[in-house]
Input
Amino acid sequence: MKVFKLSFLGVLQATALANAYIWPSPYDALEDAYTVSGGFGDGGIVDGVNPCSLSPIGGRLPGRQAAAEWLRLAYHDVATFNSTTGLGGLDASIGFETERPENIGSAMNTSLVFFAAFQTKTSSMSDVIALSVILAIKNCGGPSIPFRAGRIDAEAAGPLGVPQPQQNLASHTAAFANMGFNVTEMITLVACGHTLGGVHAVDFPTVVPQSAITSSNPDGVVHFDDTFDSFDNHIATQWINGSSEDVLAVGDNITTNSDARIFGADGNATMRAFAADASLFQAQCSVLLERMLNTVPSSVQLSDVIEPLEVKPYQLSLTLNADGQLALGGNIRIFGTSDEAEAAVAAQMPVSLSWKDLDGTANATHSTTLTAVSQTSTSLWGSVYFFTIDALLEAQSGISSFTVDWAFSASDTLTHSDNGGAGFPLQSVVLFQPQGTCTDIKGNITALALIRNDLGAVSSVSFSYNYNVNQPGSVSVKQVTLQTEMERVGVSSASPIYDTYTTTFGKGPFTDEGFITFDISAVVGGQTFVAPDNQEAGLLTQCGSRR
Output
């Protein structure tokens, strides 16, 4: 089997709109997870913190709070950033550092294992960590924090230096200054971090009395304030009015009362302002937490802010059926923030899809009406609806792009969505065929693809398998890509204009965690065509089994 390096190219995508987020994008999986928080199309991140009080592993670790643990994980990853050298920051090096005393507790391991399910070839663990914090805070009633992607995961541990409760104020001030935050910003970040969750007696026995450990609270978690499951300013109001229950501020062990030292670092001016104005607290938390999450190595360039697309394809599939027709499936997602969007009834929304031939020719007959998905969907940012595509296309004509016409109600004027002007690109030259892709009892995968044979010479046919492997010394997994050459085995029995290509390979050591996807690429007539991001889930059958 020949293995070679492939330069990944998009599916006939226009590139005129530089920096604009149009589909497809390397950040599509992250945008999906950001936009849809429940129901159909839900990636599952918010499920881990809904309700806000939910303990990790779907509530199976009572007393703990996943949302607070996700925020703590992100902070500990960033805390050793050096603003002078530009090294460190949110880079998922924390996966190599969870055995350090400064990162005590099982919470970080639990969070990283959960996050592995959301890693893709373009969604780094550090991007997932950042996104998790943004979603958790919003789900807990906190502010909207802008999300940028593009973080690159470290492949080794970073330096020591996460601030500890027993350290004095000068040490904490110096540590935050090293990260690039002044005293006021230090106070704000600590207050924003400690409006959720609490301290675990099993991890900090000198801070929390062991009497806190009970059968219903086996970790002995004592909360920072009286609304641990609400992102609000009670951490400040209780500190200022003298009713604080924060054991890092009013605990019996004065040595570990680091919050008291930090909150009082400016004579309590910042905390008084937060106690007096809940909206100020939310606004400042949004600004500072965004800065924290965007603290990355100086060599990393983050994307523009990612926001929900108004119209977006979801899990598209294009295959050749036994009758020689192209079967187009998948969904179209529609998102809105208006009152009209919130009041919409999906089953009554007019939505249609029109496509152009392979050569870019429009045809009035190339259109299909979409049906609403019966299952509802939710978003933290607005209203979201999905519509199913079920269309048959003539193989000879093919497809090069499509547009979507839609409205929130039948009485409204239709909106024509063309993906920034060029349409939503979709090619029919290279097809992944799940019906012929399978795995044998040894775990070897046989993959099947179809490639048009009437558009010129075919070369460099590659099958890319994107999967996760364990990293020595780290809790986090790492996504890798195995690329193999595919061989022609003959003309497709379904259509003479397609040839069949196949490859069989073993994927070696792996873990099933994370998104496992297939990409197929080929140069046909001097142009590169790619059928990307075919998800393994639900596709692989046992070789030789009935379908």
